[in-house]
Amino acid sequence: MEKSKQRRVFSVELKLDLVKKIEQGNLGVSDITNVYGVSRTAVYKWLRKYSDIYRNETRVIVEQKSISKKTKELQDQIKKLEQALGQKQLRIDYLEKVVEFASERSGEDIEKKNKRLS
Question: What burial letters (b/e) apply to 82-93, b meaning 16+ CB within 10 Å?
Fold first, then answer.
């Protein structure tokens, strides 16, 4: 003989009371599953439906693709910054040579003279 499953319906009041006890820390999900013979999934559904604490819980899903994409973006940004830094250094080197050349042609140390004026 096959044993037929009996569908049980829990009242909203009972669900609210159990959710409240979980929120207060008086009961755990395991306690409710053992005492009332209800599945953990059902209890968690009650929590999402009736609890302010668990309803507002935000889940953050981190995917491997998003991590690798972010890493690639950061590597590209580093590359651009390194290029900009290299260009600025070339400009500084060029301007230093121009000042050096102008100093030699004029016979004066332009860099020292400029520092005295400032």
Answer: eeeeeeeeeeee
pTM of the predicted protein model: 0.44
Nearest to 19 by CA among 38, 44, 40, 39: 44
61: which 2 tokens? 């899903």
> Is 111:103 a contact under the CB 8 Å cutoff?
yes
Handedness of CA 106, 108, 109, 115 (dihedral sign): negative
| Residue stretches of the chain with pLDDT short of 70 | 1-5, 56-64, 113-118
Q: What is the pLDDT of residue 54?
A: 74
Give residue for tokens 């290299």.
86
Please name which of 55, 23, 53, 21 lies closest in space to residue 35, comparing C-alpha atoms. 21
